[in-house]
Specification:
The protein is an alpha+beta fold. Helix content is about 35%, strand content about 20%. It is elongated. Bound molecules: adenosine-5'-triphosphate and magnesium ion. Adenosine-5'-triphosphate binds next to strand 6, strand 10, strand 11 and helix 11. GO terms for molecular function: ATP binding; catalytic activity, acting on a protein; histidine-tRNA ligase activity; transferase activity.
């Protein structure tokens, strides 16, 4: 047997309803905030991620699924959702339309990581992107959207961590301070971080190696180095969130795993699924669009891991919707009536009522057992008598109650139930 690739997962027909529930909720919440869906390709030119995500990040250094296509072009499977959106925004001239542009996506994301609980090689993200506004109200809006989705799903235990990692101006002073700090302890850092020391010392703060994390614990904090503009923006955002009743903690250790962030960064963290508890990460990336070849365009957004979100819902015993079993099962009483049952089901379906009949040559008794197990809401036993009188007994499975309904009225009656 050929098995599933390491770090990937099937969604079987018995659990896809959970995904529909989460995705439908996400789409609905996004719509109430005025966001429209954007879909971009599953693979892009590798160059886009090198420039967009950043060459000193773990994603680009270690995690990309990169391949040469038959025309010898280097392609990479989507390793996050934002770079493709930025490319599409530029390529489709979306920036020329009235701004801001508010978009959301649901996409597979591919990263070559060491698979473990909550860490896959293909996972899925719901994300939003708000382009064309520098206002702290825009930062607040995307944070509120993430929070609304989380709460609509019934989760109350996620903690919001907030930070600002400053712009190009503040980053200069902060990078210098980080270099001084880490250089003094360079031999203790992992080899990758030793390299990061010169190119992008901020990345050391995001290293997953224990020895680096231990050293990073006492590193200078970025909030001490913010320029006036960044400080004002960060304070305004905090005021808005407080006014909206959002509780959060300022956590200067959050820097996020992608190079494109400027200013605001945030994470929603769960305490119910162990160490891999970051369900949602986001922030502001005012330089990204320019970085991938567009006009300077401020942007803010987040990515939310759907597998981790579902893990949290399951860990907390929260609802994930219910299996999508058709409403009604039509059971022919005899072999000769199979065709009649099949036609009746066809008519119900045409009227928009979900319906099934036997496709497995089961006896009537076996069909009853099957219908019970599958959890149809209604059952119709179709025999000669019913066909002659033009009336069937519509049985509600849960209560066992029956009522007589004319066959011609079935689509209407069932449609209204
Ligand atoms: P982590 O620090 O856990 O590696 P990250 O910073 O790489 O996360 P982002 O790039 O911000 O994560 O992705 C957004 C969200 O996608 C994460 O908060 C997480 O919920 C989810 N996610 C990221 N990588 C994976 C993965 N390998 N498997 C499952 N979910 C993931
Ligand atoms: Mg990661």
């Amino acid at each position: 047997m050929i098995s599933i690739p390491k770090g990937t997962k099937d969604v079987t027909p018995y659990e896809s309803y959970k995904w529909h529930y989460v995705e439908d909720t996400a789409r609905r919440v996004a719509a109430t905030f005025g966001y429209s869906e954007i879909r971009t390709p599953t693979f892009e030119h590798t160059e886009l991620f090198l420039r967009g995500v950043g060459e000193t990040t773990d994603i680009v250094n270690k995690e990309m699924y990169t391949f040469l296509d038959k025309g010898n072009r280097s392609m990479t499977l989507k390793c996050e959702g934002t770079a493709g959106v930025a490319r599409s925004f530029i390529e489709n001239g979306i920036g020329a339309l009235p701004q801001p542009t508010k978009m959301y996506y649901i996409t597979p994301v591919f990263r070559y990581e060491r698979p473990q609980s909550g860490r896959l090689r293909e996972h899925h993200q719901f994300g939003v992107e708000l382009y064309g506004s520098t206002s702290p109200f825009a930062d607040a809006e995307v944070i509120l959207l993430a929070k609304r989705l989380i709460e609509t799903l019934g989760i109350t235990e996620l903690e919001l961590n907030l930070n600002s990692i400053g712009c190009g101006t503040c980053r200069k002073g902060y990078n210098a301070a980080l270099k001084d700090y880490f250089r003094a302890r360079a031999e203790e850092l992992c080899p990758v971080c030793r390299e990061r020391l010169d190119k992008n010392p901020l990345r050391i703060l995001d290293c997953k190696e224990e020895r680096c994390a231990a050293i990073a614990k006492d590193a200078p904090v970025v909030t001490d180095y913010l320029c006036d503009d960044c400080r004002t923006h960060f304070e305004a955002l905090q005021t808005i969130l407080k006014n909206e009743g959002v509780s959060f903690a300022v956590n200067p250790k959050i820097v996020r795993g992608l190079d494109y962030y400027t200013g605001t960064v945030f994470e929603f963290i769960s305490t119910s699924i162990g160490a891999k508890g970051t369900v949602c990460g986001g922030g502001r990336y005012n330089r990204l669009v320019e970085e991938v070849g567009g006009k300077p365009t401020p942007a803010v957004g987040f990515g939310m891991g759907l597998e981790r979100l579902i893990m949290v819902l399951e860990a907390l015993g929260l609802s994930l919707g219910s299996p999508e079993t058709p409403a009604v099962y039509v059971a022919p009483l005899s072999e000769a009536l199979r065709g009649q049952a099949f036609s009746l089901v066809g008519k119900l379906r045409l009227a928009g009522v979900s319906a099934d009949t036997d496709l497995a040559d089961r006896s009537f008794k076996a069909q009853m057992k099957y219908a019970n197990k599958k959890g149809y809401r209604y059952l119709i036993a179709l025999g000669e008598d019913e066909l002659r009188s033009g009336t069937v007994q519509l049985k509600e499975m849960a209560s066992g109650t029956e009522r007589a309904v004319a066959i011609v009225d079935l689509p209407k009656t069932l449609g209204e139930l």
